[in-house]
């Protein structure tokens, strides 16, 4: 259990705190900014989400810099990302901030890719994320951040950056999923 893997596990441990903050009816007041009233609890959850998301970059950077890339890390890191992003999107649907159909497509892709990774792992092959997969993660994280911010500061300008990021994330999620399966379909054929 090296330092990057511990950082990844810390991301996983922040997820229940994030879920609790957005699920329990805490009343810590609101922050009025521009034309929006954002519940303080949403902002605290956003900070937790942002810190957890930043650990994704940190663990990868540290692992590459110190040559601590492991198969466990290659498995845990994308799993932690999927758990964090899925939890956030599901909560955004329950808060009626994100459309359910978009979230269903995004999460379905994550399950499908995870299934392929599990088949590959059974064959002793570790499938790392590609560049489109990394872009997908960045777009999903940015979409979640702006959705939790109720599109502040862009709401004052009438610019729906939160929606633009969400639909861009959806598009790249689908395209990267197709690319991932096309590139790694041989794993399914090679499995016993």
Automatic annotation (TrEMBL):
Q: How does it sit in the membrane?
A: Multi-pass membrane protein
The reaction(s) annotated as catalysed by this protein in its Swiss-Prot or TrEMBL entry are: a CDP-1,2-diacyl-sn-glycerol + sn-glycerol 3-phosphate = a 1,2-diacyl-sn-glycero-3-phospho-(1'-sn-glycero-3'-phosphate) + CMP + H(+)
Pathway per the UniProt entry: Phospholipid metabolism; phosphatidylglycerol biosynthesis; phosphatidylglycerol from CDP-diacylglycerol: step 1/2; Lipid metabolism
Q: Looking at the keywords, is DNA repair present?
A: no
The record's listing under InterPro entries reads: CDP-alcohol_PTase-I (IPR050324), CDP-OH_P_trans (IPR000462), CDP-OH_PTrfase_TM_dom (IPR043130), CDP_ALCOHOL_P_TRANSF_CS (IPR048254), Phosphatidylglycerol_P_synth (IPR004570)
Give the domain of life: Bacteria
Subcellular compartments: Cell membrane
Q: Which UniProt keywords apply?
A: Cell membrane, Lipid biosynthesis, Lipid metabolism, Membrane, Phospholipid biosynthesis, Phospholipid metabolism, Transferase, Transmembrane, Transmembrane helix
Cited Pfam families: CDP-OH_P_transf (PF01066)
GO terms for cellular component: plasma membrane
Which EC number applies?
Answer: 2.7.8.5
GO BP term, example:
phosphatidylglycerol biosynthetic process
**Chain ranges passing through the membrane:** 12-31, 43-62, 83-107, 137-158, 164-182
Q: Per UniProt, what is one GO molecular function of this protein?
A: CDP-diacylglycerol-glycerol-3-phosphate 3-phosphatidyltransferase activity
Q: What family is reported?
A: Belongs to the CDP-alcohol phosphatidyltransferase class-I family.
What does the UniProt record say this protein does?
Answer: This protein catalyzes the committed step to the synthesis of the acidic phospholipids.
Specify the protein name: CDP-diacylglycerol--glycerol-3-phosphate 3-phosphatidyltransferase
Native organism is Gracilibacillus orientalis
């Amino acid at each position: 259990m090296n330092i990057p893997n511990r950082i990844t596990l810390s991301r996983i441990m922040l997820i229940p705190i994030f879920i609790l903050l957005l699920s329990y009816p805490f009343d810590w007041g609101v922050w009025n900014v521009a034309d929006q009233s954002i519940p303080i609890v949403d902002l605290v959850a956003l900070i937790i989400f942002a810190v957890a998301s930043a650990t994704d970059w940190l663990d990868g950077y540290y692992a590459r810099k110190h040559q601590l890339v492991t198969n466990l890390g290659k498995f845990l890191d994308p799993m932690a990302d999927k758990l964090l992003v899925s939890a956030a999107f599901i909560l955004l649907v329950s808060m009626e901030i994100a459309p359910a159909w978009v979230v269903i497509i995004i999460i379905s892709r994550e399950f499908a890719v995870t299934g392929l990774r599990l088949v590959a792992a059974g064959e002793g092959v570790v499938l790392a994320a590609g560049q489109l997969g990394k872009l997908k993660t960045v777009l999903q994280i940015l979409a979640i951040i702006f959705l939790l911010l109720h599109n502040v500061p862009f709401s004052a300008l009438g610019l729906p950056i939160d929606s633009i990021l969400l639909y861009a994330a959806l598009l790249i999620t689908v395209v990267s999923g197709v690319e991932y399966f096309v590139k790694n379909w041989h794993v399914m054929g090679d499995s016993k």
